[in-house]
Design goal:
Layout lengths: L4 E4 L12 E4 L12 E5 L5 E5 L3 E4 L49
Length: about 110
């Protein structure tokens, strides 16, 4: 399972530390920013995000939400994707898609 927050790329901005990002294109096996690619910390190698041609898929568990963390509404899960290939059932009221959201069968 993976908890992911997906943003349009024009909504993502790094104020500092871009020089500490490492890019890897797994299709070509190249450590370059060839889209789509994996983005990790160049210092500790923690996976930060997947960068696509039009989107940025980040991992919310890496975000800092303050001293008394309150998960912003926009970071709360809205659905399950690829639920047709799940290993465990999720007993919640979220919509469950067989593939991509709004592009596959709603289960």
């Amino acid at each position: 399972m993976q908890w992911a927050a997906i943003f349009h790329k024009h909504h993502v901005r790094f104020a500092a530390g871009v020089n500490h990002l490492h890019f890897f294109n797994s299709e070509l096996n190249k450590h370059e920013r060839i889209l789509p690619c994996k983005v990790s910390c160049a210092l500790c190698h923690t996976l930060v995000a997947d960068e696509g041609r039009h989107m940025w898929l980040a991992f919310p568990s890496l975000f800092e939400f303050g001293n008394t963390p309150m998960l912003p509404e926009t970071f709360k899960p809205t659905c399950h994707i690829f639920y047709g290939t799940r290993l465990i059932d999720m007993n919640d009221d979220l919509p469950k898609w067989s593939g991509h959201k709004n592009e596959s069968v709603l289960l």
